[in-house]
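Show me a record, fold above all:
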Amino acid sequence: MDDWDYRKFYQLAEVAEMYFIKKMQQAEIAVKLNVSRSLVSRMISEAQERGVVSISINHFFKRSEELENELCSRFGIETAGVLVLPGEMPDEDIRKQLGRLTADLVYEELSEGSILGITFGTSLKDAVAALSYKSPKYISCVQLAGSMGAAESAFDAHELVHLLSSAWSCGSVFLHAPLMVNSEEIRRHLFENRSNSLNAEMCRKMNVAIVGLSSYDIKSRPALFTGGHVTAEELAGMRNHGIIGDVGTFSINAEGHFVDVKSMTKMIGLDEKGWKKVDSRYGLAFGEAKVNIIRAALSGGWLNRFVTDEQTAKLILGNGSL
């Protein structure tokens, strides 16, 4: 940092302290520093943008220890987070709350040098967003699956890795490829690319991963369908062959067994055996439409940490009504 930057950051910190800590009005600060009120306003905004000011909001969660213990016992997972909601909430708000709880749990596991893998999904978007607001940790983020394209850019794996690595100024390793390609030969060729081979290497070394769960029921509008990667007929065909959905892009049946779909060559940096060697494999999902894929993912050992809400947990365990 040169002398000009040092003076600039010093001034931003002084203004921020007067405004946020001493509770001075912008007009008061302007008089004290003999500058315009508009300049004070710009300096406050810049202090926030440059990370001089960190705002922390503590969300409090009520969790069901009974249901968490039952999920761990039934499926042999190490950690369960079951959120008790304060009342009826729209799905968007439930996703945000589950994302915040997931972020808290993941954050506790991350330490200097950790490698965090991220796939895609609407619930994952909220978890990664919640993580990005926390104090940075010196980790590396790796994109676990190829990009879905512009149609689903808001929760695309590339965008989520970029979001967290930008917020934390940490390392990132992207997968420069689409989510699906036409053949295994093309997949192998893409992984011969230097950056993609590094991605595969980082995937093998990662110790924490967060993945989404997708049901192949057309009514739940899975990302593969909404992103234009498969047709409704192809989804129906897969379900006729016993495939009920995917976890972290791995297609599985109702028993949780991996099913290799030859017509769906997916770009992911490790195989199913490598995936199950990852120390902490987080999944988050909720809702009646996800119950079967959740059960399958937990039964098949794809996840060892799982976050959901109270009602969904009861359905998974058979304690609620479908």
